[in-house]
Amino acid sequence: MVGKYPVITLCGSTHFKDEFIEAQKRLTLEGNIVISVGLFGHTGDQEVWENMDEGTLTDTKEMIDDMHKRKIDMAYGIYVINVGGYIGESTISEIEYAKKHGKTVTYLEAISHH
Q1: Model's pTM, two decimal places?
Q2: Which of 38, 48, 75, 80 is geometrically suited to a Cys-Cys bond with 7, CB 3.0 to 4.6 A?
Q3: What is the tens place of the pLDDT at every residue in 72-114?
């Protein structure tokens, strides 16, 4: 909480840019401070990646993943953008990280337990 406002970090595949933006708006209007991704690697921001050599690309992706964990550290909980039930590997690791650190985990779409 920052004052009376819970802090929520958005997690999920950056393929879902529109859903990230919608969730950010809705959660903000509901009275939350929302921390989102720094860039949309799968659905935009291509200029960031196109001139990087492989080593720099790997280092940058690792830095961004680590920064997102720090964003989770700053939050009360995470909100998972799981369009169509999709949750990728990095999002799974973020969910596990959040749970391990006592953060709440909520989802855009209900998850089915098999």
Answers
A1: 0.89
A2: 75
A3: 999 999 999 999 999 999 899 999 999 999 999 999 999 876 4
Number of domains in the chain: 1
Report yes or no on 60 lying in a domain.
Answer: yes
Neighbours of 31 (CB within 10 A): 9
Beta-strand ranges (E) seen in 55-107 are 77-81, 104-107
In terms of Cβ atoms closer than 10 Å to its own Cβ (0-12, 13-18, 19+), residue 100 is: exposed
Q: How far is CA 98 from the centre of its chain?
A: 11
Question: With contact defined as beta carbons under 8 Å apart, do 13 and 88 qualify?
Answer: yes
25, amino acid identity: K
The residues, ordered by sequence, that sit 6+ positions from 91 with a Cβ below 8 Å of its Cβ are 11, 12, 13, 80, 82
